[in-house]
Each structure stands twice: as C-alpha cells, then as structure tokens.
Amino acid sequence: MTDTDRERIVAATGAHVRARMEGEGSGHDWWHVHRVRSVALRLAEEEGADPYVTELAALLHDIADHKFHDGDETAGPRAARGWLEGVGADGETISRVCTIIAELSFRGAGVATPMSTVEGAVVQDADRLDAIGAIGIARTFAYGGMRGRAMHDPEVDPESHDSFEAYKASTGPTVNHFHEKLLLLRDRMNTAAARRAAGERHRFMEEFLERFFREWEGADLAPVEA
Ligand code: ADP
Ligand code: NI
Fold first, then answer.
1. What are the pLDDT digits (tens) for 49-75?
2. In ligand 1, which atom is closest to the CA atom of 132?
C-alpha cells in the first residue's frame, strides 16, 4: 500500500462520514468527528502513534454508535469494517481500527475502559476532550433535548452505573450526566497532553454547574429589602 493509496482511503472516508453525519442535531455531527480527528492527530504526534490508523479510527468512531442503534455495540465496528473493506483498506488496518471503535465508549462510572493500543488511547482522549468543557456542555444539552430528557429535576439524584447495561438504560435528567460521566473523564485521560487540557475544561464545567444551581434557586438575586 502506497502513501497515495492511504491518502485516497482517508479522503474517501472523510467524505463518507461527513455526508452521513452533517447536520446531526445531538452533538454527534460531522464537526464533532472533525474536532476528534484534529485533536487525535496532535496527540498521536506527541505519543508516537500511527497517524493513519489514528485518523481512520477518529473519522469512523461514531459512524454507527450504540446510542443510535438500540444499544448494539457491534454496529459501529461492523459499519466501519464494511466501509473500509469497500474502499480497499488492508486487513490489518481494518482490524486495528475496528478494535479501537469497539473499545472506545464510556460504559459507566464503575466500568473500566482500557484501550489496548496507543492509537486507541489518543482517539479515546480526543473523543473525551470533546465531551467536556464548553463544547461538552453544549453537546450534552443537545443530546438530552434530542432524547426528550428534562434538563434538571431536583427530585432525581444522579446514579453511579456499575455496568454498561445500567449506563445505557439510564433516562435521567441531563444535569445528572455531568456526575454520571463528564466530571469523571478528567481522571481517566490516557495521555499527559489530554490530561492537561482536561483540567481547564473540567474547572469550567464545575463553574457552570455552580452557576446553574445558583440561578435555579434564584440565589444570585439581591435580598428583598424589609
Ligand atoms: P461515548 O461513546 O463515550 O459515549 P460519544 O462521542 O458518543 O462518546 O459522545 C457522548 C456524548 O453524548 C456525551 O459526552 C454527551 O454529550 C452525550 N450524551 C450521551 N449520553 C447522554 C445522556 N444520557 N445525557 C446527556 N448527554 C448524553
Ligand atoms: Ni464521539
């Protein structure tokens, strides 16, 4: 396989993913994939990961996510394999990319999600960086709205999920997702560079939640004069 072959495969994959995900409204759109690809490639350079496998995995990581396929975890790797076979990628690349996609997703507070390759580690970090900070907040409310979830319900407490099944079955309000996933990601980054960026994004989410609850209670209003 020559560099030109690889470039053709990457370009065709980008165009395919863009066409499929453009305009999606829950934060799993083409621009999410685009950001994950750029960040993953930067981390790959720092970590000495193979840029070809990294880029293909980043491009295809949400192509058939379990969240949009009745919880079926095999849909993503299967769709990626079908696409890559069709476009003429070699067998070893296909299997490396499919392993990354199969291992990538968050599965609940109590479930470890180790990545078996450095390429997987950087794609997972890039995907998780896009789940936190200002963009993470925006994506989370977009997803909650798409699912018809309440933004916040003070009568429903966050849960701690000990299995992927329980995590997938959860229908709690969107603010709970911060405790159930987003605030846990900083300490689960694989690479030093992602950990550094995650610190700042994490602090911003904490400040957002503090303000959200202050406004929810109207606690930011001046006291009524007697
Ligand atoms: P993963 O496969 O690790 O879940 P994705 O790239 O598919 O990662 O994106 C997950 C994002 O979707 C979350 O970070 C969040 O923004 C949104 N999301 C997923 N589940 C929920 C939920 N129950 N409530 C609100 N947002 C959610
Ligand atoms: Ni993603």
1. 999 999 999 999 999 999 899 999 999
2. 14
| R_g of the chain, CA atoms, integer Å | 19
Which helix (H) or strand (E) covers residue 136, if one does? helix 133-147
pLDDT tens-digit readout, 87-137: 999 999 999 999 999 999 999 999 999 999 999 999 999 999 999 999 999
Predicted confidence (pLDDT) at residue 223 exceeds the cutoff of 90: no
Residue 181 belongs to a domain: yes
Instruction: Name the residue of 29, 36, 139 to mutate for ligand 1: max ligand atoms within 8 A of Cβ.
Output: 139
Question: Domain span at residue 70?
Answer: 3-216
Q: Which CATH number goes with the domain that contains 165?
A: 1.10.3210.50
Mean pLDDT of the 173-189 span: 98
DSSP string covering 148-169, please?
Answer: T--S--TTS-----SSHHHHHH
Domain count, the chain: 1
